[in-house]
Description:
Distance between the termini: 89 Å
Order of helices and strands: HHHEHEHEHHEEEEHE
Amino acid sequence: MASFNLDEHETMRKLFNSTTSLLVLNTIVLVIGGVFVASCNETLRAVGTSLIASSLVSFSTLWVRFIKTSEDRLLSNIRSYGLKEIHSQRALVSIYEKLLETSNEIDVTGYSLSGFSNQALDIIKKRNAGENPINVRILLVDPKTEASKSQALNEGHIKDYYQTLCTNILASFEGIENVEIRFIEQSLPVMIYRLGDILFTGHYSIIKRSRSSSTVTYEIKKPGRLFDMYLSEFEEMWYIANKKDTSC
């Protein structure tokens, strides 16, 4: 009595259901159809025309399947990394404002953070004086460093431009509970602005005419590999940064 091997059956089933096998079969049908069409027999020519039409429809279906499978794989990969949205600017005021009202943790990096201060200061003061405080970690590039001075020049400012802005940041957040400011001497590879389970990031341009309002910003959600990667980057910078709460 003939034996039935389930593994071999499954292998054969997958083989004949694979896209490659279908392509081969459709190619064979197309070739046969072409041979029949070239025949002098009217019946064979009619059959050949039908075979060619059927084969072309099958090729179209396989192409659509291929595109859909590729898109599904790409979307699945994007979802696993947590990429939520790509914005054409960094000044996402309305989005930030909503998250500032609900997030319990804020991590932010920058050279001046004047925009952050202007938008977030009053909300942080109000919440941290009440029953729904926010834990805020502010990481600034030390304005005395060459990294800060070079970035100021890249943005079209005088090299000591961030010095005054730094002083303003310290004065603005002085005395607010649950707010810590640290300074780092290295230049920032990217901007990191974490609001709870959402993180925003984008590059710093060396082009003088480029401003934050026109810089592409990536919105990343938790859980996701990118969120973990950027948060880990922040934690590393925070660890090596200096605490300096009195002056710049």
